[in-house]
Amino acid sequence: MILAQIKDEILIKKKGSLYKKIRDKTAISLDDFYVGTGIHLVRIETGKVNTLLDSATKIYNFLELAKVFVFGSGCRPK
What we know:
Radius of gyration: 13 Å
Largest sheet: none
Number of strands: 0
Oligomer: single chain
Order of helices and strands: HHHH
């Protein structure tokens, strides 16, 4: 495996882990996430698949909206 592929795999896993942390902190279930976005998040969270830009944008927007509802405007989970 070449170095670029290894870096890509690490980035994919880190991105999935970040999505899971935010989803857990905002108490969003996988089912609620699917209903809100149409995206099955399990394989993305575990780093088994990469996200296309369109899916990544939907995930980000949904999680940002959830953070506003849970933590209030301007607040970020730690």
